[in-house]
Give the backbone structure.
Amino acid sequence: MRLGILGGTFDPVHIGHLITAECVLEELSLDGVLFIPANVPPHKTERKIISSYHRLRMVCFATANNPRFKVSDIELNREGPSYSVDTINELKKIYIGATFFFITGADAINDLPTWHEAKELLKNCHFVAATRAGVKLEKDALIEYFGELARTNIHEVNTRRIEISSTDIRQRVKEGKNIMYMVTDTVAKYIEKEGLYK
Ligand code: ATP
Ligand code: MG
C-alpha cells in the first residue's frame, strides 16, 4: 500500500489542502491520503488556535465523501507537538508493510536537514515536495546532505496553485465575509453553526 500523509494545523481545512492531496494521490498513484491534524499546545503559538476537537471534526467533514481520504488523530492523542519520525514509526505499526509519502511544501523539504532525526526519517518514508509559487526544491543540496536516499525518496509534484490559506479564511470569517467555495459546504456550515473564528 502506498499511503500519503498530509499533516497540518487545519485551522480550518480548505480546498487547497484537498486539491493538493488529490493531485499527489493521482501523480504518485497512491492508494490513499491520511490527513493528520497536528497537536498545537496553546502556549506554543501567538494566536489562538481553536480546539483540536473542532479541527479534527472539520477535517472529517471535508474528507468524508472521498473514500481514498482518511483522517488520523494519532498526533492529537499525544502530549505536545509530535516529531514526524515518531508519527511515521507509529503509523508503520498500524499500516504494516505500507510505503509512506509525507506531503509538504518544497520550502519545508529544503529545510529537511534541520528536522529532528532527518536521516532516520528519510529512511522510513518518502517525501513529496508540493511545489508552490516561488519556491524551488533544492534537490542538489539535499542529495549532497542525504546522499542517494534523497534521489530515491524525495519526489517533486507540481500541485495546482490555489492561493488560499487558513489565515485568509479565519480573517474573512472575522470580517463577516463569505467563505463559500474556499472550504467545503460541510465545513462552512460547521464554522457557522459553532460560531468559530468570530
Ligand atoms: P495557516 O494560514 O494557518 O498557516 P495553511 O493554510 O498554511 O494555514 P496548514 O494547516 O498550515 O494550512 O497547512 C497544512 C499543509 O498544507 C502544509 O504542508 C501547507 O504547506 C499545505 N498547504 C496549505 N495551503 C495550501 C495551498 N493553498 N495549496 C497547497 N498546499 C497548501
Ligand atoms: Mg501554514
Observations:
- Residues 2-163 form a domain with the Rossmann fold fold (CATH 3.40.50.620).
- The mean pLDDT is 93.
